[in-house]
């Protein structure tokens, strides 16, 4: 990456949590920002704060990336305004801690549209542009739930498994182009994600959680270095590593079902 040229990062899900921390990390390094999220008041406040603290240029787009065509519209906005994306952070996503038979199908449609389709669309469009310039970094936020089936969060876990495998394959395809793709796989983190997913009754969500700032820092460093995978937190690293050693799919499922049980 050429440090002397003005650079821009496009961050989705930027108004809070890990995305909010990513915005501060980029801004601290003098990188201009295009921030995408649903909640305009939070985006406006973040824009004012970052521009005041770091003297960078911040643009925000208050859109719902789960809506059809919105990911393409975000990319088209950058094209229309001659914004070259040097860093793409696909952070937007959500989950639901509920059995499939108890959830509304529309929730899953929106979840997959955001977690999978929007991420894929932005990655595809931006990667093509980056390859043409022979420089760029893509960071897709996955989850430790990608490493095994996840009862009670079946669709979310499956969506993050897609993110993991898609990003790993993209990384291989980009080799030698000057562009890299990194997947960040955090465990449960102290953000609004837990409340939105109704995970408060989950036993693992009641202990000490990683801070969003630490997760973002791990992903940011790995992305800047062009690494393939990063799993923040030693417990999460052990989980991700050990689950790969389990030879039986049935045993993996049994272990995950026990891990995902609700507190009593």
UniProtKB/TrEMBL annotation:
InterPro entries: KR_dom, NAD(P)-bd_dom_sf, Sc_DH/Rdtase_CS, SDR_fam. Keywords: Oxidoreductase. Residues 7-187 form the Ketoreductase domain. One of its GO terms (molecular function) is oxidoreductase activity. Pfam families: adh_short (PF00106). SMART domains: PKS_KR (SM00822). It comes from the Bacteria. One of its GO terms (cellular component) is membrane. PROSITE patterns: ADH_SHORT (PS00061). Belongs to the short-chain dehydrogenases/reductases (SDR) family. This is Ketoreductase domain-containing protein. The lineage of its organism: Bacteria, Pseudomonadati, Bacteroidota, Cytophagia, Cytophagales.
């Amino acid at each position: 990456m050429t440090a002397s040229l003005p650079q821009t990062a496009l961050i989705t899900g930027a108004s809070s949590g890990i995305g909010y921390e990513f915005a501060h990390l980029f801004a601290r390094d003098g990188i201009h920002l295009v921030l995408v999220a649903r909640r305009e008041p939070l985006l406006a406040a973040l824009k004012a704060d970052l521009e005041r603290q770091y003297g960078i240029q911040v643009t925000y787009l208050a859109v719902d990336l789960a809506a059809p065509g919105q990911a393409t519209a975000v990319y088209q906005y950058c094209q229309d305004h001659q914004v070259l994306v040097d860093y793409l952070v696909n952070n937007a996503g959500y989950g639901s801690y509920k059995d499939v038979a108890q959830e509304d199908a529309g929730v899953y449609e929106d979840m997959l549209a955001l977690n999978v389709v929007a991420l894929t669309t932005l990655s595809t469009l931006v990667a093509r542009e980056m390859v043409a310039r022979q420089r760029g970094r893509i960071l897709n936020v996955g989850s430790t739930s990608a490493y095994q089936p996840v009862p009670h969060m079946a669709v979310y876990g499956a969506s993050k498994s897609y993110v993991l495998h898609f990003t790993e394959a993209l990384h291989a395809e980009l080799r030698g182009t000057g562009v890299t793709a990194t997947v960040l796989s955090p465990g449960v983190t102290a953000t609004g994600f837990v409340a939105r997913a109704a995970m408060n009754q989950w036993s693992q969500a009641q202990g000490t959680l990683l801070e969003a700032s630490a997760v973002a820092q791990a992903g940011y460093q790995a992305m800047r270095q062009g690494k393939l995978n990063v799993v923040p937190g030693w417990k999460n690293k052990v989980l991700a590593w050990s689950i790969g050693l389990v030879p039986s799919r049935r045993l993996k499922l049994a272990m995950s079902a026990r891990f995902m049980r609700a507190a009593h």
